[in-house]
Amino acid sequence: MHPVVKKVLMWLVIAFAVYAVITQPARAADIVLAVWDVVSTAVVNLFRFFGALLR
Hints:
Number of helices: 2
Mean pLDDT: 94
Structural class: mainly alpha
Low-confidence stretches: none
Distance between the termini: 44 Å
Number of strands: 0
Oligomer: single chain
Largest sheet: none
Shape: flat
Order of helices and strands: HH
Helix content: over 70%
Strand content: under 5%
Radius of gyration: 18 Å
């Protein structure tokens, strides 16, 4: 991907995120908490998996 296109797309994503937080802060917080829950669950499960392999 061309660097200029990549930069424009990144700014569009950032602008949308700021817009979403400003217009619907409660919904944005719910989304962040849901994403955090998925990521933390994945990390815990990875540690459990590799821990079980080492036993």
